[in-house]
Amino acid sequence: EVQLVESGGGLVQPGRSLKLSCLASGFTFSNYGMNWIRQAPGKGLEWVASISSSSSYIYYADTVKGRFTISRDNAKNTLYLQMTSLRSEDTALYYCARFRVDGYNYFDYWGQGVMVTVSS
Amino acid sequence: DIVLTQSPALAVSLGQRATISCRASESVRSSMHWYQQKSGQQPKLLIYGASNLASGVPARFSGSGSGTDFTFTIDPVEADDIATYYCQQSRNDPLTFGSGTKLEIK
Fold it and tell me: Residue B2: its pLDDT value, please?
């Protein structure tokens, strides 16, 4: 069974940093691209960042480019999101999602999400 | 960026058909996918590639369309289908989602 479990969220002051983790199990992590997607309270879904299976390709949304860094450790089956210079508008539930790249490219499994609140 | 436009809400009677539309600001060919998000839960993939049913998803769910106009259908609607449904395109970066359509029961 595919499982994605996020951790590392919490309350953080504006301008500070936070690092999220996503532990994957039930599949060969090193074979799949991974993503972070967020959802502000009461709002829709926003793609944040993608990383390919071997970390060769990395993409960011313009809203986080230069502040967030996506990375992965295939030996530990773990995806990360380092967030710096956090703003109130970064407050959201952050999901990690597996990327199925078979010609269509879609998110086939999602974690339960971890909450990040940016507030003084 | 490709903008995906969805109606905000839809009310349907149990046992009837629900049809949700998603219009893209430019062609995404067949790179359109649909997700269901129930209250307090993570999104779940239902349809990929515009019309392909994801594994384990009941055949009551279906999708159609290509280019800029897409339709997601539930027939018949069951009480458990109360959720918000999102379309998402993967034709161009950045990957974008529609704003979601909340399905309500009449």
Answer: 97
